[in-house]
Structures are given as structure tokens and as C-alpha cells.
Amino acid sequence: MVNKKLLTVSLAAAMLAVTASACGGNNNNDEPKSSNTGNSGNAANASTSPEAEDKTPVTFSYYSFTSQKDTMASDTVIGKELQNQTGVDWKMEFLVGDPQTKSGVMIASGDYPDVIVPEGEIDKLLDAGAFIPLDDLIEKYGPNIKRVYGQYFDKFRQADGKMYFLPFGANQGYVGDPGISQGAFWIQRSVLKEAGYPKIKTLDQYFDLIKQYQEKHPTVDGKGTIGFASLAGPADSFFSITNPAMHLAGYPNDGSVIVDMTTHEAKTYAATDNEKKWLQKLNQVNSEGLFDPETFTANKDQFLAKLTSGRVLGYFNYAWQVGDATNNLMKAGIDEKRYAPLPIVFDENTKDQYLDPPSFVNNRGIGISVNAKDPERIIKYWDNLLKEENQVLVQWGVKDQNYSVDANGRFIMNAQQISDRSDPEKKRSIGWQYFEYSWPRYGNNSVLADGNSYAVSNQPEVAYAGYTDGDKALLDAYGAKTFSEYFSKPDERAWYPAWSINKGQGTPEQIFEQKASDLQKKYIPKLVLAKTSDFDSVWNDYVGQMNKLDVKGYETFITKVVQDRINGKW
Q1: Distance between CA 490 and CA 367 in Å, rounded?
Q2: Is the pLDDT of residue 47 over 80?
Q3: What is the rounded radius of gyration, in angstroms, for the C-alpha atoms of the chain?
Q4: CA distance 73 to 439
């Protein structure tokens, strides 16, 4: 059923902003949609081996193609506890600069860290033979890995039948998300408050509201108010300016395609009418002085600083991209400068699909490199990490310090604990920022053996306790009890997400994606920033260049894989 109420904002979204997957969820269509899991206490804590564990101190290297502050794992509360259990510490390093350049240097030199989180460079590193197969190690040392990932193994085996990495999430049961952890059109609460909390649904309504507010409030603390912005400058964030075209048309994040719900045919949306409507609107917004041209050049820190300053009235991004800004605004306690996510679409008759359906992302994960000093110790560490008490540790922290358990066995948090869970520096010092996502783990929507939610933000008691007076005022104004009510429930998509389909390096599909992306990066800034009178000529040039690519061949490939997945062939 389409829900036309259009406002949501919650602490749950803030807390989940940095835990969600980079481009998709960690759910699976095969999982039962219930609040219970089949795990028992014993099954969730399988023994790793009959012999005594080796706890000789050792430090391994960990490299992630994501942005974060470098650290030693043992300098965090969680990392230190895991070191006490295993003797293993990690020198954790993160991407600085361009990911393609970094992966190229790694491959050319053959200088790999012990463990790699490759993100979008995964196909390139797999093809280069950077990872060792995990099958035999898992069979010998991974009872917990088999318990958690066993039913998913066939979904991430490679063409040779082997497993080279573990994805970030395999659901153990299923519980819904009360907040918004993925994409949305976000709007500053002050804009909604001044307008009397109107119900808005379309792109035109969204920008009309922002324009009216900016005209009344041209500056914030002496600096110009920014009507609309996005984090689309970094090479790995340009999707923030391309993806809205499919969301506005009523589709979830399937990457570069939209999939017909009846025929299951995949079609690219680049250089189509949907993309034109979106970019033409941005062109109009830019001509009216509402668009931030630094959208295409600002780095992440610069963008987050703008959000935190209160100057930006609206933006499109995924919640996990802006977690630090979201948490800093929460910490500052100025509700009116926080943002509310809206499921904006092109027209009143379109059903929004911003919420991810149950899914399994099989082309992101963590792997052991061919240079790893001791793969056995590493796989044992991963297996230990997947014991349920350690999955609780990396999400919830230390009992009676970071959370408590009530008389009914429910995990709860007081105001200070909730504040700590959303404080960027606390998240780093405790270790959530480092351990809650990019490691072998349960899926975000998992249910623990005792019925509690795996993800903190999915625990109703925590979500409700974390609502500020501003949250409650918004809920009252829109007649809602939970924030995700404002977004339509997701339709089942057995293939989801299509962006996780492996193409391999040098294949026609990978080459098409690269060339299409290059064209978008070349033309979209021109289209948005052009004089309105020049838009059509630039658009026609863009379409002409895109049509020189093998669009049909790419769509045929994606369609086949989508239909294979529907038939259980991953």
C-alpha cells in the first residue's frame, strides 16, 4: 500500500548512518521475515577447534578502501577485548586518494597487506590473484563462519567454485529498520517547521519549499545559505548525483539499472528521460541560485562541514555517507539544524522505493591476501569474531557500560549511552567505527538468539528512547509513531541488488560501465551548470556519446543475471 505521508527523521537513522552498506543492504530474500531466529545459544557459540588456541601476540595489517582514521585495533575498547581473547592485534590503514590508483599500485608491486577490504576494487584485485581461497581454512577452522554464512556460500563463490572473501552481512532472522539508513532527499527541519510541516512528495514541491525558505533566510551566521548540495565530488561518490534519477522514478538502488517488476528486464537509466528530468531540474535550481557548484569538487570533509554549519537546506545522499555530520548535529543538540529524510519522487502517482528490500550483497567483503603471514590465525580470529557474544560486542559494546539488559532480557540504553553511540569520537575510541561493519558479521537486519536486534538502531526500545523533543514534535505533526512509516514498504526483489552483480575486469560489461561512468562525470556537471538555454544542446551531445556504447549488450547481460538470481542461480 502506498503511504503518502512524507516525513521521517530519527536517531535510529543517525546511529545507522555509518553502519549501513556503501551501496546496499545486508539482507536476503531467502530469510524468513520474522522476529525470531533459529539460532540457539550453543549454535551461536560454536567451538573453533578442539585443541588449545594459540594466543601468542601477533599483529596483522588491515587495509580498507574506505575513508577513516588509521589506528591500532588495540587502541579501541573492542579491539583490545578481541586481542585479549585471541592474541591478535591489527594495524588498520585506510584509503587516502584515488582507489583505482591505490589498487593499481598494490597490484603492480605485489605488496599486499595481510587482509584487504577492497570495496569497488574487488574485481580488479580478484583478477590479479591478490586473495587466497578460504574454503579449506573455513572447513578446518571455521565452525562459526559455516554457521553464519553456510546458506550463502553458493552466492559468493567465484567462477572456479572457491570463496575468496566473506561478505559484510548474512542475516540470522529478519527485523525491519525503524529509521532511514540508505538514500533520501534530506531537508533541514527549520524549513519544514517554518512552513508548518507540510506534506510534500514531488521534486517540484521539495525545491519550491527550499526556495521559499532561502529567500527569507539568505544567510546563516553571516555566510550564504545553500539551497541544495550533494557529496558528488570524490571519484567514489559520484553516484550521489546519478542515483536520484532511479529513486525519483520509484525504484530502489539497483546500481546503474532499473528492473521492471513484471518482465524483470534491466534497463540503464543514464541518458534516458528519467535522468533528463532530474538533471534539468538541477539546471533550473542552479539558475535560481539554489545549487551548490562545489557539489562536484568538494571533498567529504568539506561537504560534512557545510552540513554541520547549518547553511545547507537540502541534499541527496545515503545516510552512511554523512554519518559524522548527522552525529555531530545530534551532539550539538540543535534540532532545527538537523535533517529530515523525504521519499521524494517525480509525481504524485509514483510509489517510492527508497527502503531496501531483503537482500544479500555478494560483491563486497573482506579477504586474506596472498602475502598474509599466518592465514590460519586470521581465519580463527574471524571465526571467533562471529561468536554471538562478539557480534553483540561489536554492535552494542560492553554490557553495563555501553548498554544494559532489562528484566525482560531486552537490550536498552540510557541517554548517555545513546549519546555515546552517536558521538563520532566515542565511536572511534570504543571501536564501533572500526568493527561494526567491515568485518565478517551478521546482517544488519539479524535477530540475536535471545530475540534482541543485532543492529542497535533496529532495537525499538533504543529508537524510542533516543527521540529528542524535536523528533517527537515532528512525529506529532505528521501523526506518526515511527519514522519509517513515511516511506513505502519495499517490494520483494529476489535479485536485489543488481549493483552487486560481478562483471570481472576487462569484460564488455565492465568496460561499458567504466565508459558510461566517464561520460556521466564529463557531462553531468556541464548539464547542471550550463545556461538554461544551452541545456538541450549539451544533453543531445551527451545522449549521442552514450548511444555509441553497447547499451543493449550491457542490459542483456544484467537481465540474464537478474533472471538467474530469481531462479536461484547466483
Answers
A1: 31
A2: no
A3: 23
A4: 13
- Number of other residues whose CB lies within 10 A of the CB of residue 217: 13
Residue 413 CB neighbour total at 10 angstroms: 22
Q: Where are the domains of the chain?
A: 8-175+362-454, 183-354+471-566
Q: Identical fold at 8-175+362-454 and 183-354+471-566?
A: yes
CATH class of the domain comprising 183-354+471-566: alpha beta
pLDDT classification of 236: cutoffs 50, 70, 90: confident
Q: Is 305 exposed, middle or buried (0-12, 13-18, 19+ CB in 10 A)?
A: middle
**What average pLDDT does this structure show over 497-512?**
92
- Provide DSSP, 454-522: SSGGG-HHHHHHT--HHHHHHHHHHT-SSGGGGSPPPPP-TT--GGG----TTSHHHHHHHHHHHHHHH
The DSSP call for residue 86 is H
Distance (Å, whole) CA 348 – CA 75: 51
Q: 506 by DSSP, 3-state: which?
A: coil
CA distance 497 to 362: 9
Q: Which residues pair with 93 in a beta bridge?
A: 63
C-alpha closest to that of 117 among 139, 138, 99, 136: 99
Instruction: Please tell me the CATH superfamily of domain 8-175+362-454, with its number.
Output: Periplasmic binding protein-like II (3.40.190.10)
Give SS3 for 274.
helix
The two beta strands, 115-117 and 411-412, are: unpaired
- Grid-cell match 533520501, residue found: 184
Give CA separation, 179 vs 17, 80, 163, 194, 417, in Å.
Answer: 10, 31, 33, 24, 19
pLDDT score for 4:
32
- With beta carbons less than 8 A apart as the criterion, state whether 314 and 290 touch: no
Which pLDDT band holds residue 432 (cuts at 50, 70, 90)? very high
Which stretches of 493-565 are assigned E, i.e. beta strand? Answer: none
Cell of 474: 515532528
Give the C-alpha separation, 512 to 479, whole Å. Answer: 47
Dihedral, CA of residue 148, residue 567, residue 33 and residue 389, to nearest 10: 10
Could you tell me the three cell numbers for 98?
584515488
The amino acid sitting at 537 is: S
- Contact indicator for 534, 501 with CB cutoff of 8 Å: no
Q: Is-cis flag, bond preceding 497, omega within 30?
A: yes
Determine the average pLDDT of the residues in 336-356: 94
